[in-house]
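User: Can you write out an input/output pair for a complex, sequences first and structure second?

Assistant: Here is one pair. Inputs:
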Amino acid sequence: MLKGLKADLHVHTCLSPCAQVKLSPLAVVKQATALGVDVVGICDHNSAENAEAALEAARGRGVCVLPGMEVSSSEEVHILGLFDTLQSARSLQEIVYRNLPGENDEKTFGLQVVANADDEVLGFNQKLLIGSTTLGVDQIVDTIRSLGGLAVAAHIDRESFSLISQLGFVPDDLALDALEISPDLSHAEAINRYDPSLPLIQSSDAHKVEEVGRCCTVFSVETASIDELRMALREQDGRGIIR
Amino acid sequence: MMTLTEVAESLGLELLTSKGTDDVEVSGGYTCDLLSNVMGHGEPGNLWITMQTHQNILAVARLKELAGIVVVNGRRPDEETLRKADEENVAVLGTDESAFSLSGRLYRLLE
């Protein structure tokens, strides 16, 4: 049976150096639950190390967590990869880590806190997560898709780190599932401005607790699986997006 | 005005595509890695200096009628992009120099 699921598919945690330290995986889940968000995509910069804690924190709380990542391409384009399983997210992470040069400078960029589901600090990631991989945008999208994930161009309306800002327009041979717009503009404005050839989603890109769920996309699906979300984006078998 | 052939020779740029450059006039230069910005501000006849190698650079060059694209820092577009550049008649050149130093030398050359 189809139901409307409110999804915020782009949420950071304290693992992202630019996010609040108090934005723990547990804090994300609690905030999502409080706001009635059904699905949360955990997309830290170039890492999925807090996805497990978010999955665990979500157990029994009525919110579904999708493990994911916001990967930075060599062109400095941000691409979201969302998965059904932690294993797939980790496979992407392995490839990203192999192609991500540099070490974090905590004083300049911020802490990269790896936490567990009980808000305890497990350690600090030392990689330069704020940096860009040496992987081209095509390679990243193809890798996400080959791992069964949903590939989304992040915040295309932003003046930096977006597909449009970096590459001028959406390359027609890129195997993206969707384009994401930020909370800064409405769906109608986005349609008017971009006349997109791909489905649009909108999410919070939350870096602070109070930003989680501030902007969502409602999917009409049976369950919160990647396959179902993809069918909704393609408007197949009665699935769709509710505006 | 100088032709792209003369500019490439003077600055030691390597031509990576097969398009003839003798009849291409270089009116000036534009240095930027954001394609959206080049689409807004590039002028016809500009030689575009960038380190972006994504295939979208070809469409931007055609759209803005740029004289050509110089990819700096020793980076090279992949074979597919160069093949497409030939198809679309866009001149792509390469150099090991940085955007800063190449821009400076191009500026002096065209002054």
